[in-house]
Amino acid sequence: MTTGARRRMGVEERREQLIAVALDLFSSRSPDDVSIDEIAEAAGISRPLVYHYFPGKQQLYEEALRRAAQELSGRFEEPHEGPLGARLLRVMERFFDFVDEHGPGFSALMRGGPAVGSGRTSAMIDGVRQAAYEQILAHLGVGDPPPRLALVVRSWISLAETTALLWLDGRHIPREELERQLVHDFAALMAVSAAYDEQMAKLVREMLADEPADGMFGELLTRLLALPQPA
Question: Is the pLDDT reported for residue 27 higher than 90?
């Protein structure tokens, strides 16, 4: 005969449950607006029991953030097959999936939530950016990037972050357009840098060699050529 008694969780299982509950709440609202009482209620336990597993909301937030950072880093992983433009588009689609799913939490993370000023939090955010940076370099087949390429890739990652944050403020532009625009932004940044540096020009030529005429970078050229002429 089954009773209504709840199964007692082990220490690690309960910690995992609390992290999952906190991540869910932080994804739907700013971490500043989520209380320990709400976390306890969502987990079906008492407030003192939450403190038994975590010293405070700061520590629980950091653990939830660590999981989110790991997940976000994984969104930049993509098989090195096919045209680069198509690969970058798939990466941007997964990136915006994450932003869409964790809107307030993503915004609080990038703008500074309850853990603002924390060295651990900053290190996690920097870790995501570094993972994205290394993934893009790997797609370009570059292990030791020249200074201009490092500048382009890091600038593009920063642009993607800023674009996502502005999109969350009102979602005035369809995300599908922004995903494609960011891929085009990458091509444009590379092209401008190529105009100043032969190493970058060589990379751009190699990058475009495998792109089909109807691919992402070809689409950018088509859009530019279709711009209306001044009267």
Answer: no
